[in-house]
TrEMBL record:
This is Polysaccharide biosynthesis protein C-terminal domain-containing protein. Keywords: Cell membrane, Membrane, Transmembrane, Transmembrane helix. It is found in: Cell membrane. GO terms for cellular component: plasma membrane. Its main location: membrane. It comes from the Bacteria. The keyword RNA-binding does not apply.
């Protein structure tokens, strides 16, 4: 168990490196996009389009979560499971293309359908990427997942840098079209990422993605997938409920400022997502006792790493004014408040993964998300009219903290474990951490 954990931790470190790299790339892209948009309104519209995509993709991508549970927990035949998933994808893609045709035809009459068309155009490729990524995760091919996650972000950064340079050189002619050009860039980079990951996932799986009808596999697939999809949708509403409340109650300028605060604070989640990714397959595969120990140890390291990161980011928060220009100074206060909530919610994901992939309890996350969303919306309605976007940040952080509290209590109830196991380092943890210090000392002594 200790040896497995050491390998998992080393894998976590590598994954964190990739995640931080992606965060840095995404951050630089966001800075460039924010700086070259002529108005806060364009920045707000771009944020609304990309965020709205997540509602559709998050819901439909939820069925991919069954791959890990089906392969590693239920031990289903790989080709049969992937055949059912492939068949579902083709059905979803056909419906989305039909909706895209209708949306494009309505663009001249209603301008909002112009942006809806972009969302529908990118949606099939985002879902395809998600399904392929989920398969690689279930196969414990984390290195490939890390590499492929860099593709879209890196390509978008290159495109954003080109647009920034062109706009700086030809501001008068390019500025009015930058929103549309940026959306086209966003579409093309997502298409490229999907086109690259599919053959890799197919090769690592060692089987063809042949669509098939299989009632024996379909029954648990859809029973599990439907619940996870609704859970994912509620999760996304929890993530972005305050975002849309700000848009309704504070306008597009408020959305632009709030977007900076949200995206900056969510960099913290790269840590928790890295650990979750590294133990993704093992939480489902291990027997109950070993899975509990893995979950608790991962939670402890995640929770305190998130707290440390939040403290550092809070101290660096005045840099928002420098990096994004003085126009975005109003993002600093909500960013500082959101750090509290993102720290709490970042640790929640590991517990949710244990509930769904080890215990098979997919209903609790639905109830937890529903309670969190209700709290978020209620506080938004009360606070935003009086406090502006700061009220949205307060609502979000409160909702995230509630989600962590409910998850911890549910974990205790279904494992009969003391809360000390989640929040206090054990003797084994300390021994593990000390292993690296003597090694560094011996290396330094040997180099003298």
């Amino acid at each position: 168990m200790q040896g497995d954990f050491v390998r998992a931790v080393l894998q976590v470190f590598r994954t964190i490196g990739y995640k931080l790299g992606i965060s840095a790339i995404t951050f630089l892209s966001g800075v460039l996009v924010t700086r070259y948009f002529a108005s806060l309104s364009d920045r707000g519209t771009y944020a609304l389009v990309t965020s709205t995509l997540l509602f559709g993709s998050t819901f439909l991508s939820g069925y991919g979560a069954f791959v890990n549970y089906g392969l590693n927990r239920l031990k289903l035949d790989r080709s049969r499971l992937l055949g059912v998933l492939s068949r579902l994808y083709l059905q979803l893609a056909s419906v989305i293309v039909a909706l895209l045709i209708v949306s494009v035809s309505l663009t001249h009459a209603f301008s909002v359908f112009f942006y809806i068309s972009f969302i529908l155009a990118v949606l099939p490729f985002v879902i395809l990427y998600n399904y392929s990524s989920r398969l690689l995760q279930a196969l414990n091919e984390i290195s490939w997942v890390n590499r492929m996650n860099m593709v879209q972000a890196s390509l978008f950064l290159v495109g954003a840098a080109v647009l920034y340079g062109l706009n700086h050189a030809r501001r008068a002619t390019l500025s009015p079209h930058l929103l549309v050009i940026t959306l086209i860039l966003w579409l093309c980079t997502n298409i490229t990422a999907a086109a690259l990951i599919v053959p890799i996932a197919r090769a690592r799986a060692g089987t063809r993605f042949t669509p098939r009808r299989d009632e024996e596999v379909s029954k648990p697939f859809f029973a599990y997938g439907n619940r996870i999809s609704w859970q994912n949708l509620l999760t996304q509403l929890n993530y972005r409920g305050d975002f849309y409340a700000v848009g309704i109650l504070a306008g597009s300028r408020g959305v632009a400022l709030y977007t900076i605060a949200v995206t900056a604070s969510e960099i913290l989640w790269q840590v928790s997502q890295s650990i979750s990714l590294a133990v993704f397959a093992r939480i489902a595969k291990e027997e109950r006792h070993a899975s509990i120990e893995l979950t608790e140890r991962s939670f402890r390291f995640t929770f305190y790493t998130l707290i440390s990161g939040a403290v550092i980011m809070f101290a660096c928060s005045p840099l928002i004014d420098v990096v994004y220009t003085h126009r975005y100074q109003g993002s600093i206060a909500p960013f500082q408040i959101l750090l509290i909530g993102t720290t709490a919610y970042g640790a929640t994901g590991l517990l949710t993964q244990f509930f769904t992939d080890q215990l098979g309890h997919v209903r609790f996350p639905l109830y937890m998300q529903a309670a969190s969303i209700a709290t978020n919306v209620l506080i938004c309605v009360i606070a935003i009219p009086h406090l502006g976007i700061v009220g949205g940040a307060l609502a979000s952080s409160t909702a995230y903290f509630l989600a962590l509290t409910l998850s911890v209590l549910y974990y205790r109830r279904h494992t009969n474990r003391s809360l000390r196991n989640l929040f206090f380092f054990t003797h084994e943890d300390r021994l593990f951490l000390r292993r690296f210090t003597p090694r560094r000392r011996s290396l330094s002594e040997g180099s003298k």
